Amino acid sequence: FTELTNLENLYSQAFQNTNLQEIALSNTKLSEINDAFRNVKKRNSIKFPQTITKLGDVFRGCTLTEIDLSNYTNLKTLESTFSDSRDLVKVTLPEGLLSINNAFQGCEKLATINLLKSLQTIGNSAFSGTKLQIVDLSGLTELQGIGSYAFSSCNELSEILFPTSLEQIGEYAF
Predict the structure, then answer these.
(1) C-alpha triplet 161, 119, 165: angle, nearest 5°
(2) How far is CA 114 from the centre of its chain?
(3) Taking the mean position of all CA atoms in its chain, how far away is CA 56?
(4) Left if phi > 0, otherwise alpha if psi is -120 to 50, otherwise beta: which for 35?
(5) How far does the chain reach from its first CA to its final CA, in angstroms?
(6) What would the mean pLDDT of 94-116 be, rounded to a whole number?
(7) What was the pLDDT predicted at 11?
(8) CA 61 distance to own-chain centroid
(9) What is the 3-state secondary structure (H, E, C) of the chain?
């Protein structure tokens, strides 16, 4: 769709269940995007503004197989961002990301992820229901907490390495 240069707010489910293939938001004034594009099935490309700090459940239920967020260095929070995106196999996260909450819950094909040292919180259900086999958190020197159910139902999980900075692990985390 047409580039929207003055757009400051994009409300809940604004484009839900559409067949948009390209979404260009790179010149908007958005700092947060929540569930505006939920269940958009044929999305091939999406471009966010560099000002983005939080992604809510933007990709929930989408058919993405991979995405690269590494250029969005202002992005601090993923909140249910990829929940139930069952085909997702590869994600590249940006430096500076601080918090992941419910972001990959139900991503049934996600077997590996590279977590960055800036990460402070792995929140509730962050990776539950994924195919992660090894979770190496040992290099995450800022990680303080792992939320409840963060890695629950990861039936193939066989190894976990913790950082010395870790202060709390929630109930049923693994």
Answers:
(1) 55
(2) 12
(3) 8
(4) alpha
(5) 42
(6) 95
(7) 77
(8) 13
(9) CCCCCCCCCCCCCCCCCCCCCEEECCCCCCCEECCCCCCCCCCCEEECCCCCCEECCCCCCCCCCEEECCCCCCCCEEECCCCCCCCCCEEECCCCCCEEECCCCCCCCCCCCCCCCCCCEECCCCCCCCCCCEEECCCCCCCCEECCCCCCCCCCCCEEECCCCCCEECCCCC
- Which pair of tokens denotes residue 93? 């996260």
Structure confidence by residue, pLDDT tens digits, 24-82: 788 888 888 887 777 676 555 678 888 899 999 888 888 889 989 999 999 999 999 99
- 146-166 mean pLDDT: 97
Q: Which residues on neighbouring strands pair with residue 134, listed in sequence order?
A: 159
The tokens for 121 are 């919180």
Dist CA 169 CA 50 (whole Å): 33
